[in-house]
C-alpha cells in the first residue's frame, strides 16, 4: 500500500491516463470536410450538401459532377 507522495502521484497518473483526448472541434471539422464549392470556396462534407448548397446559394449554376467535386 502506498502512502503520501506515492499515492498522490499514482492518482495523478491514473487521472491523466483516463482523461479524454483534448482536441479542437475545428480540427475534427477540417478533417471531415472534403468537398469545396468552386464558386465561393465553402467546404462541404459530402455530395448531398454540395447539391443543397448550389440550390440555395447558386440557383442559376449547375452543380459539378461527383468527379469534379474533389
From TrEMBL:
GO terms for molecular function: zinc ion binding. Signal peptide: none annotated. Residues 35-63 form the C2H2-type domain. Residues 1-25, 51-70 are annotated as: Disordered. Residues 1-19 have a biased composition (Basic and acidic residues). InterPro entries: MBS1/2-like, ZNF706/At2g23090_sf, Znf_C2H2_type. It is found in: Cytoplasm; Nucleus. The keyword Zinc-finger applies. Keywords: Cytoplasm, Metal-binding, Nucleus, Zinc, Zinc-finger. One of its GO terms (cellular component) is nucleus. SUPFAM superfamilies: Expressed protein At2g23090/F21P24.15. This is C2H2-type domain-containing protein. The lineage of its organism: Eukaryota, Viridiplantae, Streptophyta, Embryophyta, Tracheophyta.
